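Query structure, 540 C-alpha cells:
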C-alpha cells in the first residue's frame, strides 16, 4: 500500500518525520485528538523496518523486523488493527535449539512441554525452571507497568516527582527477594545469572539468546540482563511471553496502521525524504523536504534515530553544546545481519525431536547457538575480525504458518544473525563482503540441517551498512541506540530528555531512540503523542 498525494497540503498541526510503525502510531493518536497530521516517509513504502516486500519472484517476507510479541495490546485495540486486517498467529512451538550432537532442546507451547524437554538434559534444571520463570515474571511485571508511562525528565518538576514517587511505591511493594532479583538483572550479565541458576549449556543458551538480540555484546557483558528482560515483556493474543507471526509479514502491522491513519484523515506521503527541520527562534516550525518543498507545522515529531535527527536534520547551532556532545557519544550498532531465503522445500534438522511428528519445530524460533561460550566466541571474533566464522543465527520459517508468502510447496526463511560489526577492520567494506558473510550464515544453518544449502533458491542479505543505507538505521542499529543502563528510561536518549521532548521547542522524538527502546512496540509513538497533546501545541 503506497499512498501519495499529487497536490499535498503545505501546512499541518503536526508533521511526522518517518512512516515507520512508531510514526504511524503517533500520527493516529494525534489525529484522534483533532490535529491535522502529515507523515513524510523517505522510501516508496510505509512501515520503516516493519515492511513486507518481495525479495525474489513469488517470495515475500518481512524485510527487517520479523516476529511479533512486543506490539502493545492497548495500541492494537486503540488503532483497531484487527479491523484493518491484522491477524497474529501464535508459534506452535516457541523455540527449538538444535545441538551439534543431534540432540535438541525445545520450549513450549506449554510449560509442561518445556520441562519434559529439559528433563532429558537435567532433572535439577527442570525442577528449578518454574521458579526462574516466576522470578522473571515478577520483574517483567514491574517493567510492563512502566511501558506506557513517560519517564521523568526534571526530578524537581511536580509531574516528574509524582512519577518517581509512584515507581518508588511499586518497587517498595515488592518483596525483599524480588527487589534483589531486580538489582541483579539490571547490573549483572545474563551469562552470570543463568550460570547461577542452571547447569545445562543448552538451556542457558536458549534463554541467554534474548540477551544478545540486537545487542553487540557477549552474554557475559555486565548489565545485559536487562536486554534479556526487554525481550520477554511482550504477549500475543493475551498470552504473556508468547511470540507469533503477523499474517502477511510484519508489513501487515504497518499497513493496518496506515489504514487507520487514513481513516482519521492523516496525510501519508511516500518518496518524501526530509532534508531539515525548520527552526525559528528556538522552536520547530516545520520541515523542508529534499525536493525543496517546505511544510509548515506547529509541531514536528521525529520517528528517526537520535543521531540522524540531531546531527543531520538540525542546524549545527540549534542544540546546546553539551546535548549535542552527548548525542555524538551515543552507543550505536546492534551488529545485526538480516537475511531472507527462498527455499524449494523445508529443511531437515538432524536434531529434530522424534516425538515431533507434525514438524512443529519448523514453526518455532530455531536458535543455532548451542552455548553461552559459543555466543561469547562469536562476539570476540567480531571484535577482532568483523564477524565470526561461526555466527549466531535464529531462523524462522514463517511460511509454515502463512502460505501467502511463497509459492505452493516452497517456503521462505528469515535469518536473524549476530554479531556483525558495522565497521569492518583494515579498510574492508561490507559492499565487498556481504556475500561472504551470507555464505557463512548458510553454512552455519547447513551444519544443523544438511539439506538446507541445496534447498536455497535465492536470498537477500542486509549487512549493518545496508540496514543503515536502506532503512536509515544509523550504525545499522535496529534499536536506534544500544539498550544499556546508560541509555534507558529517563536517560533515553540522554538524561534530562527522556520525556520525548527535545531542546528545541515543539520538536519531539517518537521513535525507538526514546523510552522504552527498540522492537515493534508502538509505545514510543503512543507516549510521545500523549506528551504532545498534553503540551497543548504551544511554547513550553
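Result returned for the query:
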Amino acid at each position: 500500500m503506497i499512498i501519495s498525494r499529487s497536490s499535498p497540503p503545505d501546512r499541518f498541526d503536526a508533521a511526522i518525520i518517518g512512516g515507520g510503525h512508531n510514526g504511524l502510531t503517533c500520527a493516529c493518536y494525534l489525529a484522534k485528538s483533532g490535529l491535522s497530521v502529515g507523515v513524510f516517509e523517505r522510501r516508496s513504502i510505509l512501515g520503516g523496518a516493519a515492511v513486507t516486500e518481495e525479495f525474489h519472484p513469488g517470495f515475500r517476507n518481512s524485510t527487517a523486523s520479523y516476529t511479533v510479541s512486543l506490539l502493545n495490546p492497548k495500541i492494537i485495540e486503540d488503532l483497531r488493527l484487527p479491523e484493518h486486517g491484522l491477524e497474529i498467529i501464535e508459534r506452535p512451538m516457541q523455540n527449538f535449539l538444535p545441538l551439534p550432537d543431534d540432540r535438541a532442546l525445545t520450549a513450549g507451547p506449554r510449560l509442561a512441554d518445556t520441562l519434559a524437554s529439559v528433563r532429558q538434559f537435567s532433572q535439577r534444571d527442570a525442577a528449578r525452571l518454574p521458579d526462574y520463570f516466576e522470578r522473571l515474571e515478577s520483574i517483567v511485571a514491574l517493567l510492563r507497568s512502566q511501558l506506557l508511562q513517560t519517564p521523568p525528565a526534571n526530578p524537581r518538576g511536580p509531574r516528574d516527582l509524582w512519577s518517581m514517587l509512584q515507581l518508588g511505591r511499586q518497587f517498595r511493594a515488592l518483596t525483599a527477594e524480588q527487589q534483589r532479583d531486580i538489582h541483579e538483572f539490571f547490573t549483572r550479565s545474563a551469562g552470570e545469572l543463568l550460570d547461577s541458576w542452571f547447569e545445562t549449556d543448552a538451556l542457558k543458551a536458549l534463554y541467554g539468546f534474548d540477551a544478545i538480540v540486537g545487542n553487540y555484546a557477549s552474554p557475559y557483558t555486565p548489565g545485559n540482563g536487562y536486554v534479556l528482560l526487554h525481550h520477554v515483556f511482550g504477549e500475543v493474543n493475551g498470552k504473556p511471553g508468547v511470540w507469533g507471526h503477523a499474517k502477511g509479514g510484519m508489513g501487515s502491522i504497518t499497513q493496518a496502521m496506515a489504514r487507520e491513519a487514513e481513516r482519521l484523515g492523516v496525510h501519508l506521503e511516500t518518496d518524501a525524504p526530509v532534508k531539515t527541520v525548520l527552526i525559528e527562534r528556538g522552536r520547530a516550525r516545520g520541515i523542508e523536504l529534499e525536493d525543496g518543498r517546505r511544510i509548515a507545522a506547529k509541531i514536528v515529531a521525529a520517528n528517526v534515530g537520535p543521531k540522524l535527527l540531531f546531527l543531520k536534520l538540525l542546524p549545527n547551532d540549534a542544540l546546546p553544546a553539551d546535548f549535542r556532545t552527548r548525542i555524538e557519544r551515543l552507543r550505536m550498532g546492534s551488529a545485526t545481519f538480516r537475511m531472507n531465503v527462498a527455499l524449494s522445500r523445508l529443511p531437515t534438522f538432524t536434531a529434530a525431536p522424534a516425538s515431533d511428528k507434525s514438524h512443529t519445530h519448523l514453526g518455532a524460533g530455531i536458535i543455532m547457538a548451542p552455548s553461552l561460550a559459543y555466543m561469547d566466541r562469536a562476539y570476540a571474533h567480531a571484535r577482532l575480525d568483523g564477524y565470526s566464522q561461526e555466527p549466531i543465527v535464529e531462523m524462522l520459517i514463517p511460511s509454515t504458518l502463512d502460505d501467502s508468502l511463497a509459492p505452493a510447496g516452497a517456503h521462505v526463511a528469515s535469518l536473524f544473525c549476530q554479531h556483525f560489526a558495522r565497521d569492518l577492520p583494515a579498510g574492508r567494506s561490507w559492499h565487498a563482503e556481504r556475500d561472504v558473510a551470507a555464505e557463512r550464515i548458510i553454512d552455519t544453518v547447513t551444519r544443523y540441517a544438511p539439506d538446507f544449502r541445496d534447498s536455497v533458491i535465492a536470498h537477500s542479505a542486509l549487512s549493518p551498512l545496508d540496514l543503515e543505507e536502506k532503512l536509515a538505521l544509523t550504525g545499522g542499529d535496529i534499536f536506534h541506540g544500544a539498550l544499556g543502563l546508560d541509555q534507558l528510561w529517563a536517560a533515553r536518549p540522554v538524561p534530562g530528555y527522556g520525556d520525548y521532548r527535545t531542546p528545541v521547542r515543539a520538536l519531539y522524538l517518537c521513535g525507538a531512540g526514546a523510552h522504552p527502546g527498540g522492537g515493534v512496540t508502538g509505545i514510543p509513538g503512543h507516549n510521545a503523542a500523549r506528551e504532545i497533546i498534553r503540551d497543548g501545541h504551544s511554547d513550553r
